[in-house]
Amino acid sequence: MEKDVQKVFVKINQVWQKGEIVSKDGTTLKVKTSENMEFNIDESSQYVEQIKNPAQKFAYGDAKEKLEGAYISFNKLPNNVQDAIVKGEEYMHSSSYVHEGELKENVRAVQLMYNRQTGSKLDVQIKRNEPVKLAEAIAYNYQFTKEEFDLMVKQGKQVVFQGSSKDGEVFSKLAYYEPKLNDIRTKSALSENNYFYGQKLTKEQATIMNKGESAQITINTKKGEKTYMVNYSPKSARFITKTFEKENVNDLKVQSMIDNQKKKIKPQKGIAH
Known about the structure:
This protein is of the alpha+beta class and 273 residues long. The protein has helices at 60-69, 79-86, 146-153, 203-210, 244-264, and strands at residues 7-12, 15-25, 28-33, 38-42, 48-50, 91-99, 102-113, 121-126, 138-139, 142-143, 159-164, 170-178, 183-188, 195-196, 199-200, 215-221, 224-233, 238-243. The strands form six sheets. Strands 4-3-2-1-5 form a five-stranded antiparallel β-sheet. The N and C termini lie far apart (76 Å). This is DUF3945 domain-containing protein.
């Protein structure tokens, strides 16, 4: 039986990248990076870090550097928050400071994201002093319409929109209102490159869920096919699922209640129905 390949993060030229341990001799590791670069490094080096969790996307050392660059002490954060950050999850950080004799609160949403040049970057969004107004609701060169703005701010729903870069590149994004920031927050939209239980989404499924609606997805399992009704939450970057069978049972219960109510209501004489 083959040994499981041990995955690591290594820091080369100020950029953290993934690699794997090819061999080990005492405390010396032979590492091969994703770009096929091979080299030896001592396992106690500050430039190598073993991956602790399959869901880990970033090195703890990388997260520490990025957050401390934003004046957030990574080591003071609870372990579960540190674990969430290296998985690429959003963290809402609150801190206090004194300004002109008054204690003020500072709230920021921080999230590590992949960057082609630097390997990673820290996305930081600071809480507005006042709730965002329609005229200020602009993201990626896109001005949200009043209808979209009301859906997000008044109804708490997500919207999908087409953003664009300075170079003219057009891409889909998801947006929702975050009360903790008094602002619109944006996340990546789903596409055919995303997976649900190891199965690629279809274009239709991604489009439906980007609109905040439920998509029906059937997965092949060892016990046969299993169908889910699936929603996507951009805020938590998670799929929310119900089995299709359970959804049908709920629908039947609702219909049964309606039918029973109709039977109880008998038309009275002299009243037109």
